[in-house]
Amino acid sequence: MVINTKIKPLLKQHSVSNTRMDYTQTIKEYIELERQILSRLDANAINAVMNALDSARRRNATIFIFGNGGSASTASHFVNDFNKGISEHLEQPFRFVCLNDNIATVMAIANDIGYDAVFEFQLRGRITKDDLVIGISGSGNSPNILNAIELAKLDGAFTIGLTGFDGGKLAKLADISLNVPVMSMQITEDVHMVFDHLMMAIFYNTLCGINHIKAKQQ
Q1: CB-based burial of residue 54 (10 Å sphere; 0-12 exposed, 13-18 middle, 19+ buried)?
Q2: Could you tell me which of 31, 48, 11 has the C-alpha nearest to residue 195?
Q3: Contact indicator for 142, 165 with CB cutoff of 8 Å
Q4: CB burial of residue 213 (10 Å; 0-12, 13-18, 19+)
Q5: What are the CB-based long-range contacts (under 8 Å, 24+) for 88-91?
Q6: 168 and 137 in contact (C-beta within 8 Å)?
Q7: Using CA atoms, how far apart are residues 43 and 30, in angstroms rounded to an integer?
Q8: What is the Cα–Cα distance from 23 to 168, expressed in whole angstroms?
Q9: Whose CB among 56, 170, 171, 184 lies 3.0–4.6 Å from 61's, allowing a Cys bridge?
Q10: pLDDT for 174-184, tens place per residue?
Q11: Phi/psi at 76 (nearest 5 deg)?
Q12: pTM surpassing 0.85?
């Protein structure tokens, strides 16, 4: 790469100093904490969620999922992995719908009604007792998540809560709680994605006959 001679002085002026930090110990501590938390997850609760998801698929139910911030990204990722990743290989696909994906709708509800209603409003008139609803909240106390789960329960739908910390109100409200027992939002969100990929990998095998571990390429 050739650097313009006029730019060289600027690069030198703004170059990173020679001082280097050694993050290896804190990296190892983070990984070790995550390893410990993974070992404490409730396999029975995960199994119950997987059965609920597959039951919803077999009865052609809609699976609504939603979250805020990083949890919104997790919700979108679930939709991708189930609606495309797994369903690509199934005659009877999953029917996930992410309520935080349509930004215009979310912003309109937030502006005209209130942010606490952004998910609840979208469920009104759409949800049935055969549907399944997944709310993702690291704290377990996000008002817009709780409002939507409460509405879902009133309409007779089955509910699942993905939480961290002590689970908050969502862990008590949902029919099944997948809690990450750690006082860290970062590890909570890491493990919420583990839930997604763990279930996807197992369904690949059990529903599609595909091993997620690929053989080495020669």
Answers
A1: middle
A2: 48
A3: no
A4: exposed
A5: 89/204, 89/207, 89/208, 89/210, 90/57, 90/207, 90/208
A6: yes
A7: 22
A8: 33
A9: 56
A10: 999 999 999 99
A11: -60, -40
A12: yes
| Tokens read off for 18 | 């020679």
Torsion of CA 159, 64, 119, 124, to 10 degrees: -90
Average pLDDT over residues 17-34: 92
Quote the CA–CA distance of 75 and 97 in Å, as a whole number. 9
Q: Convert the pLDDT of each residue in 62-121 to its tens digit.
A: 999 999 999 999 999 999 999 999 999 999 999 999 999 999 999 999 999 999 999 999
Q: Is the dihedral of CA 54, 168, 103, 73 positive or negative?
A: negative
On the question of pLDDT at 13 being above 80, the answer is no
By the 10 Å C-beta count (0-12 exposed, 13-18 middle, 19+ buried), 116 is classed as: middle
Q: Is the pLDDT of residue 8 over 60?
A: no
At which residue do the structure tokens 């996000």 appear? 142
DSSP state of 215: P
* All domains in the chain, ordered by first residue: 44-208 (3.40.50.10490)
Of 1-5, 37-41, 82-86, 142-146, where does mean pLDDT reach its minimum? Answer: 1-5
